[in-house]
Amino acid sequence: MALTTRKTSGAPPAPGRGGGSTAPARSGVRAALSGARRSLIGLLVLLALLGGLLAWGAGTDRTGWGPKLALDLEGGTQMILSPSLQGEDAGQEVTPEQLDQAVEIIRQRVDGSGVAEAEIATQSGSTIVVSMPGVPSAETRELIQTSAQMNFRPVLTTAAAEPVPEDQRVPEDELPEPAAEPADSSDPSWITPELYRQFEETDCTAPQSPEEREAQDADAPVVACEPETGTKYLLGPVEIQGTGIEDASYGTAQNSQGASLNQFAVNLQFGPDATERFQQLSERLYGIGQSTPEDPRSQFAILLDGQVVSAPQMNAVISDGQAQITGSFTEDQARFLAEQLKYGALPMSFEIQSEQQISATLGADQLRMGIIAGIIGLVLVCVYSLFQYRLLGLVTISSLVVAGVLTWLAITLLGWSANYRLSLAGVAGLIVAIGQTADSFIVYFERIRDEIRSGRSIPAAVDHGWRRARQTVLASKAVNLLAAVVLYFVAVGNVRGFAFTLGLTAIADLLVVFLFTHPVMVLLARTRYFGGGGRHSGLNPEALDAVPLYRGAGRLREPGTGDGLTIAERRRRAAEEVPPDRPGEPAPQDAPVGASSSARTPEENA
């Protein structure tokens, strides 16, 4: 009985012979190549813009070609300050609490962003030592020596910290125009077209420089920021100076009957003159809140050195000078705000007792050793990449070079714009980033190899591997960024520089992987050598023990299933596995339905 096969209409077409699949495949290839080229062009434009900006800054002597170095690597200036109280407290001894608050105020003035690597500390319980990289300018010296300025201003309007997009800003012909002279500091007539446009353009997500905050006029409206809540304020003129606060404390809030409200509050006590002015302010703001509850003009802002530290709403008329600020405070937040209100307005000035130039605390030897450690780590990563991935390792090396250039440009420009200074802790962050950056490439390359082992062609393996590796890379970098942000906000000093560098390199890594590494792999996968799985390409299917989906002679398998053998090959392998002492035992049956169920030897047929 002859065994015949019949082609049915549902049989899959032979690979490569589908008449209607060629055009979509070619279209997909063109789209992939076009997207890769656009990504590379975008990266080149970004590098050109950053490089051009740096060249312009260096050419106009606004910055140098390299990053600014911190105190431990460059040296700088050390000033010893002697504090003295002014006004009614003149001649009194400065308490340790006042001195600690003075340290925090000076730190905010000279290193508000936390990355300038300045060191401020008390000495002998009576003086303050300020160590700064480089030579401080005359403006910085004056800023350090002057007393803190605290004042109260009424709120005119509020907005989110981000600048208003240009297409959403108020048109020129609809900008507010004052109808008359302002009647009081809460009058909207203070808002001019120029002031409102400045309010829209102000970006409170970036820290304001001490010089910008110092330039605020007490008799004019200003735009101010509250970094804690990410809010932007347009404020009226100063109503009350901070020197009018006699005392500030914190504790649990109580209602009018004296019962605890189970939340923390900050208590203020004004002096005699400030009590009267605060009563007038509370009557006006409380009236606004009663007539229009959602009006932000029922709030008043407390500013320390031009920066909003709190903006409570007026909920009652206060005539006895005893105010209470409530909100969702933790105990630490309430304590910190009370200290700011109590000591932030201290009429304290500082006299520079001595000033001297100091050498680098770590010196050139430590910097050289740090650079050598980074070079050794980079060389080891490169050697491992070439050993593990052959010529594909060149993609890793070139990606590291691009990431290094991008990070160098960013650090140098940040030194110009934000006074960022690279310390030895920052150098350590860059060294750690080498391994983290290489880890992204390893995840991607291994996913491509897994797809090749599953039987996909190399171009298809690159596309499918990227879709799967992309999520892993994003999750990994999100964890790195989260760790860097937490470390930045809970640490001080050099540790903040390490966290800042770690976060910056994580962002650079994402840009390089998306705009360089993947586009280069897409282009290489369409070349003859890499796309054909060249011997030393790192993508050779034979070296990866890959079994193709279609193996010829009607052999077709799904990725990850089966062993890739035909029925005859399975039977021959089974026969070879039969022990020598049992030659007559028949081989396992694996024949299709309708075929002969026995396999005879020539001797049996005879």
Low-pLDDT segments, ≥5 res: 1-21, 587-606
The overall pLDDT, averaged over residues, is 80
Tell me the total number of β-strands.
15
Helical stretch tally:
16
Cα shape: elongated
Distance between the termini: 20 Å
Major β-sheet annotation: 6 strands, antiparallel
CATH class of the largest domain: Alpha Beta
- State the CATH architecture of the largest domain: 2-Layer Sandwich
What keyword list fits this structure?
transmembrane, alpha+beta, Alpha-Beta Plaits, Multidrug efflux transporter AcrB transmembrane fold, 3 domains, Protein translocase subunit SecD, SecDF_P1_head, cell membrane, 606 residues, 16 helices, transmembrane helix, six-stranded antiparallel beta sheet, Gyrase A, domain 2, four-stranded antiparallel beta sheet
Characterize the structure shown.
It holds the Pfam family SecD_1st. One of its GO terms (cellular component) is plasma membrane. This is Protein translocase subunit SecD. Forms a complex with SecF. Part of the essential Sec protein translocation apparatus which comprises SecA, SecYEG and auxiliary proteins SecDF. Other proteins may also be involved. With 606 residues, this protein is α+β, with helices and mostly antiparallel strands. The protein folds into 3 domains: 80 residues, Alpha-Beta Plaits (2-Layer Sandwich), CATH 3.30.70.3400; 200 residues, Gyrase A, domain 2 (2-Layer Sandwich); 185 residues, Up-down Bundle (Multidrug efflux transporter AcrB transmembrane fold), CATH 1.20.1640. The chain contains 16 helices and 15 strands. The strands form 4 sheets. Strands 4, 5, 6, 7, 10 and 11 form a 6-stranded antiparallel beta sheet that branches. Strand 5 and strand 6 form a beta hairpin. Helix 10 crosses helix 13. The chain starts with 21 loop residues before the first helix and ends with a helix. The N terminus and C terminus are likely disordered.
